[in-house]
Amino acid sequence: MNVFGVDIGGSGIKGAPVDLERGDLVAERHKVLTPHPATPDAVLDGVCEVIEHFGWSGPVGATYPGVVVDGAARTAANVDKAWIGVNAAQKLAERVGAPVTLVNDADAAGIAELRFGAGRGRTGTVILLTFGTGIGSAVFSGGQLVPNTELGHLELHGHEAEARASTRAKEEGDLSWQHWARRVQKYLAHVEMLFSPELFIIGGGVSRKADKFLPLIEGIQAEVVPAQLRNNAGIVGGAMAAALASRPAGSASHPHPAATTLTTPDLGSAAGF
Ligand code: BGC
Question: Does 134 contact ligand 1 (Cβ within 6 A)?
Answer without folding.
Answer: yes
